[in-house]
Amino acid sequence: MLAFAANSLLNRAALSGGGIDAVSFGTLRLLAGAAMLTVLALLLRGGLRFGGRGRLAGVIGLVLYIYGFSAAYSGLEAGLGALLLFGMVQVTMFAGSLLGGEVVPARRWTGAALAFAGLLWLLWPGGAAPLSLWHAGAMALAGIGWGIYSLAGRGAQDALMSASATMILAAAVGVALQLAGPGLPVRVSPGALGLAVISGAVTSGLGYALWYSVLPRIPGSVAAVAQLTVPVLAMAGGMVLLGEALTLRFVLAALLVLGGVALSLRPPRPAGR
């Protein structure tokens, strides 16, 4: 979750400076992640294997997420975008888990509802800015894409190999989309390029490999609820690293989010107690 929150900060820092456009940032992020995971797979596994269970779904999900996210934030408020993103992640992953036969206990539903209520309180935009349905739809697709990517990772037998193959194939699709659309970026500042490489190689490449190693060990609904901590961690990081203000609203909403997540993750009591 810290890696995912760091991705949000790196995206904001790179795009706010105007040194790169959102689509090119996403493509460079995919390429840097693919390069990092290729090196690791060759060193630790001795090669690459591109087939496997859920590969196509994972690639489609990752591409939808990367470019839907980039497109949405060009015309959507950050708070409302995060709500749409994580709301769709919850819907997609809970639906996928239920269809896969998972039994979700009542306390997890309750915890998820409390945590999302905390996010609503924290992130709901205060102004009356008109909502762009196109950008909102792009963010909804990004949330569905990330949910699909995460559900596909639950079937990974080798987390590093699966994450590497998915990232490499998604990067190839991304380059094709870049060339077919806006083309290669005309101008990329050194700072934005560095942030894209860090976001791709470290917080995406290594973070996604770690995520794929965790997903087969936990229920899909647990993975969904745990991700509600990401906006809170990103905002806390913005306060520490970007000088954003700490408010009482943030503290209370963060406690509600973290409390709901803790309730969802609490193990059931042993029988007889």
From TrEMBL:
GO terms for cellular component: membrane. Residues 138-265 form the EamA domain. The chain crosses the membrane at residues 26-44, 56-76, 82-101, 108-127, 133-152, 159-180, 192-215, 222-242, 248-265. InterPro entries: AA-Vitamin_Transporters, EamA_dom, EmrE-like. Keywords: Membrane, Transmembrane, Transmembrane helix. It is a multi-pass membrane protein. It comes from Salipiger marinus. This is EamA-like transporter family protein. It is found in: Membrane.
